[in-house]
Amino acid sequence: MRVIIPRLALSLAIGLFGTILQAQEFIGGNFMLRAPMDEPKHYCLDLDGYASTIDTGAPPIVHSCKEGWWRDGTYKVDYPQPGQIYLPDFDLCLEATSLQDNAAFKLDACSDASLQKFNFREDQKVELRSDSADKFCLAVGEESGRTGANLRRTTRVASCDDTDEKYTQWILPREGAVYPAVDHERVIAQEGQGGPGGARGAPGGAPRRGPQGHLYVGACSPCHGKSGEGYAGEQSPKISGQEDWYLSRQLAGFVADYRGAHDNERWAKQMNFHVKDFTQAQLDSFVTYIGTLEDAPSEPSIEADEVRGQQLYAATCSACHGENGMGNAELNSPRLAGMTDWYMVTALQKFRAGLRGHQPDDTYGLQMTPFAKALPDEQSLLDVVAYINTLSPNP
What we know:
- It contains 12 helices and 13 strands.
- By secondary structure, it is of the alpha+beta class.
- A hairpin with a 5-residue loop joins strand 8 and strand 9 (126-128).
- Helix 5 (244-255) runs antiparallel to helix 7 (280-290) and helix 10 (341-353) packs antiparallel against helix 12 (378-388).
- The longest helix has 13 residues, at 341-353.
- The chain is elongated.
């Protein structure tokens, strides 16, 4: 048997169980500015862009804090060496470009470079190590800018002694770190009044649009692809070709918190956070637009025992999803044929582990859970999905 599964959460060693392992091993957290200033969600260290558009070559920024683990917002300190600030998903460290006021920061390969070494002081300032009498710290810019419904500021080198502490004090991403509670009433009031970030959109509440015009291009394609083909590197499945009623139901689940609300479900938690930036009309427009995208079958990445998989599929899956894997709207069972195989494996694993289909409001997730658990072993997940890969989405 040969198994080919994309990186991070998808290798058999850590991928299929990655969301579970995150509950046991500290992978990092938000590097948060202590003072909220004009952002009730606080500011956290971040990168320009998101998902497939992240630019690690641009100077790091601070951005409205996001719940969960994000590739560009999950940091560790004192790793891989004491005094370093590390971005695990990119294997890069924070580095100052020079020891002078208003110098920039950048990300670079972790090394013994002196400008990558910091003192994490008791007064919550992050000081660059040097023998100079003048002490310089990690700070943020005095002016904020808008990114959709969120705010951002630049990062900079600034005098530790002469800069207002609200720009230089941080809550570090250490295991057991206590972050301030978000003032949700202030967030709702601010966004509802078209305050910083506007009302769920661009300045003035207008939709955030990509270069091709539709909101989907700017909001969804960095993770799911311009054609809805999905990106394994972002743990985002193919969505083109999926039934509109199923897509709408999943978006509703994220909005209602019965999808992506589990603390150990890293990637779904990102989606849970992301969809709440949009109105219901905008979410509906995503589904309509996805229906116009080319439906190219997803490239198979899993090879296993198709014969055993066919037997398992017939006994466990076909009654709801159909003999051809095209789903059944009357039974609320989505299409499987031609969709992303590694995502189906991880979804089955989540149903079996209680990370999905455990919320009382998730009627159809609860319906799916006993069938996922009926598969006899972990190998059976690969076998049944390998068989699904043989089904044609265009019979």
